[in-house]
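so i finally got all the pieces together for this one. its two components total, 386 residues if u count the protein bits. some of the lines might not be protein, just check the labels. i wanna see the whole assembly predicted at once instead of chain by chain like last time, that was a mess tbh
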Amino acid sequence: MIQTIAPRTGTAFRLARGQVLTVIDPQGEQVSDMVAYNADDPEEYLSSGRSIDYASRLFLSTGDILFSNRSRPMLEIGEDRVGRHDFTLTPCSKDTFRILYGDKTPHHGCQGNLEQALKPFGIAPDRITVAFNVFMHVAIDAETGEISVRPPLSKADDFTRFRADMDLIVGLTACSAGQSNNFSYKPIQYRVD
Amino acid sequence: MIQTIAPRTGTAFRLARGQVLTVIDPQGEQVSDMVAYNADDPEEYLSSGRSIDYASRLFLSTGDILFSNRSRPMLEIGEDRVGRHDFTLTPCSKDTFRILYGDKTPHHGCQGNLEQALKPFGIAPDRITVAFNVFMHVAIDAETGEISVRPPLSKADDFTRFRADMDLIVGLTACSAGQSNNFSYKPIQYRVD
């Protein structure tokens, strides 16, 4: 069954080992920030640093493994209709909108949405680290290191699949940052099989 | 007074707000993994994701601010004789040597050294996230995202300075990974003024 995450909101759910999570971009050009924790011990979390190190690549796609801080496989990327995601940035937050966008009354962002969604699982705000930002297109200048957030490469109904390698708590959003989704806040869909 | 961190070891210490930490590469081509925590509340830690987002740059140098997960300034980079550091990878660990190098009896790496050094401050192993890897030279292919760890650009006695924006616990290593330091394990020096 397909679940819909409304624009600028988020959710969290259990994903059992062996289950497949499909993250779908129903309208195209939308981003979904994903975080994950070992369901039996949430001190073990998705680690960008470990995953990038073991893949020797910043951009991960089909066949790549997302590792935990304890160097254990958490998720493996399956079919990937987009092939470009970000794994360097933290979820957008009140402070992101204040510092980067100069908003006077900033939205609480993906950070706020994940905090609310993860609370019932006993996962504290400080445990939200660098996310696997599904469909997020961050261009890099290899000389200067400058990054620029571009509209995602995803078209309507594109998706990426992830198979769980352990029992997980997964947090997932429909991104709240204009820069990430070409200033058109859209829903995200997902299904678990 | 200059302190020396012996090859393949690490240390941790308090750095008061306003103090300046100078990280020195006495022989050249060595890396020092740095992590930092709010001394009054170690749940607040150095965040690669926040810092890269606010700088809009992967490579940080003079004038750039290293932010915490709570979006507060922790350290500001001062004089920087090298200008190239990494902020995407986690400290090398037993698993790094096992997975990337195929070592049968792997060294415990910067992760192990930081775990030992941070323990007296009550900071647990799972709290060691992506480090600011001083002098680490990670080349990036902007098209494929492939990364390759190159010898640091640092020459003997090059240094980088960091001014503390809050009272901190800082962990610092002389890196244990051959790839990072051109397969010559060397000391790191530092001073606090």
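Chain A has a mean pLDDT of 96.
Residues 3-192 of chain A form one domain.
anyway lmk what u think
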